[in-house]
Amino acid sequence: MTGYAGRVFGAMDIHDQLKMSALYIESEGVESMIIVCQVLGFDPDFSRVTEAKICQAINIPETNLILGAIHTHGGPASGTLYGCGCADPVWLEQTQQDLIDLAKKAVANSFDGYFEYASGTCEIALNRVAMSKYPNYMDMIDKETAVVKFYETATGQLKAVFLNYGCHPVVLNHKNHLYTADYVYYAIKKLQEAYGEDVAVIFSTGCCGDLNPRYRFTFEMAEKTGNLLADSVVSAKKIFTNRQAQIKCHAKQLVIPLVIDYTYDDLAEFKKKALAEVERLTEQNYNENFIMIQVEAVKALWAELCMKGFESGDLKTTIYPMIKVLQIGDLSFIALPFEVFHELGLKIKGLFNRAGRSIVMGYSNGVYGYLPYGELYEKASYEAKTAFRYYGYPGPVCKEAGDIIYKYLEEIVDTN
C-alpha cells in the first residue's frame, strides 16, 4: 500500500474494489478521452509511456488524452513515494495493459449523446495548511462540486455522471490496511443507488494539495463524507446543456525550476545526522519509533541521491510537466500533474469561466508532487519544504511555478 509512512505491512484485504473508468468523447471527427484510476498517482515517465500506448491503440493524438488518478491513500503503490511502498513492475505492466483495453472498450461502446453541466456546493474539506495559521481555515477551500451528466440522444437516458471535487481522499489514515477508494467509494455507491447501477459514475480529484477531509479515521466517517459529496451532486443546479460541442485540445510541456538551496557538504552533513537519528531511534524503541525511523531513513536516502547528482553533474534542477486542456463545447477540462493548492485551482476556474465553465483535475498525466501557491507557499511546512523528498526530487517547485502554468493557460483562453 502507499500514501502514508508508518505502515508496518501492506494490505490485508479489500474493502472495496478499486476501479478505472474511461470517458470517450468525439465530435465533428475530433476524438478525446479522459481516464481516471482509483490509485494514488503515476510517475510522469510511466504516465507518458502509457498515454502514448493508449493513444496508439485507439488512434487519437496524445494531446487529446487525460490520464488521471484520484489519489487514494488506500491503494497499491503506483509510483515513487519513498518510504511508503514500492510499485510492483509486474502490477504496473498489467495496469498499463488494462488501461489500453479499457480505452478500446470505451470507444467501442460509444453512443450519440449530449451533456449537461451542473454546479453544486459541498463543504467536506478543510485547509490543513491554514489550520493553525488562519481562523477561517474551514472556509479556505473550493466548495464547488462540478457535475457533468451525459445522456443518450435517442432515448434521453442518463448514461454517465462525471464529478470533480477538491479534497484529499484521506479519511482513513496509515492504520488502515484494506484497499479502498476512501470517501470516493461511498460517494459513487450512493450516486449509483440514486441514478441506477447501469449509470457510470466517475470521480476526479480537484485541486486539494492543501485540503483534507473534515471527518477522519474511520470507515463510518468515510461514508459520511462520501454521502455528503453525493448529496451535493444530486442537488447541483444545471448551468447549461451542450448538444453540438466542438472539441479543442491543447498540450504543452512547460519548464518549472526547482529550489536547490544546499551544497554537497550540506547534504553530507544532513545524511550523517539522519542516519545517526535512525540509529538512536532504533536502539530506543524500534516499534514505537517506526514512523520517525522511516522519516529519517527517507532523509538519508534523499541526501544520498542528491549527492550522487552533484557528483555526476546531473542533479535535476528543473522539471518539465505536461499541461493539457480539453475544451468540449462550453466546458474545459484542465489537467495538472501536481498536488495543486486550491487557490490556484480557483484562479484557473475564474480564467476559463469567463466563457463557459471549467473542471481542474489534479494528479493527471503523472504526479510531480506538490504545487503550493500564493501566500500559503511560505506557510506550507510539509508540502513546500519536505514532501519533495518522498517524491524523489532534489527540491520543491519554485514559488512562481503556479504563475508559469497560469500564464500558459491564459494563452489558450486568449486565442479562443
Which descriptors apply to this entry?
single chain; 416 residues; alpha/beta; 2 domains; five-stranded mixed beta sheet; four-stranded mixed beta sheet; 10 helices; 20 strands; 35% helix
Describe this structure in words.
The chain contains ten helices and 20 strands. The chain is of the alpha/beta class. The protein has two domains: about 15-245 and about 320-390, no CATH class; about 260-315. The strands form seven sheets. It has a five-stranded mixed sheet with strand order 10-8-7-5-12. A four-stranded mixed sheet has the order 13-16-17-19, covered by helices on one side. The protein has a three-stranded mixed sheet with strand order 2-3-4. The longest helix has 23 residues, at about 290-310. The protein is globular. The model has no long low-confidence stretch (mean pLDDT about 95).
Give a short summary of the structure.
This protein is α/β, with parallel strands linked by helices. 35% of the residues lie in helices and 24% in strands. It folds into two domains: 13-245 and 322-392, no CATH class; 261-316.
